[in-house]
Specification:
The protein is of the alpha/beta class. The chain is 30% helix and 21% strand.
């Protein structure tokens, strides 16, 4: 069982994913998993993650649910402590 799950919300964040995931890949702590919840991106984010980072658990939502994505993440993270990174100054929602 993993001690920590890193849950990453994503909407068209392709420009940031390589840096974030490469950084997680280099961690010396190994008892964690990574879940990327994609909010209907159309920038190739999901294909990129699936090809380059196959160890990431990818959840692809069919459309942009805006701030409703937080409910999905909270359901995934029940009984976990969550850290939800966002693009700086990015609004929550559409």
């Amino acid at each position: 069982m993993q001690e920590v799950s890193v849950i990453i919300p994503n909407f068209n964040g392709m420009a940031y994913l390589d840096g974030v995931l490469a950084g997680l890949e280099c961690q010396t702590v190994s008892n964690f998993d990574v879940i990327l919840v994609d909010n209907g991106s159309n920038d190739g984010s999901c294909a990129f993650v699936a090809a380059r980072y196959p160890w990431v658990h990818l959840i692809e939502l069919p459309e942009n649910f805006g701030s409703m994505l937080l409910l999905v993440i909270l359901e995934i993270g029940k009984s976990m402590t969550l850290y939800l990174p966002r693009k700086e100054n990015a609004p929550i929602g559409r």
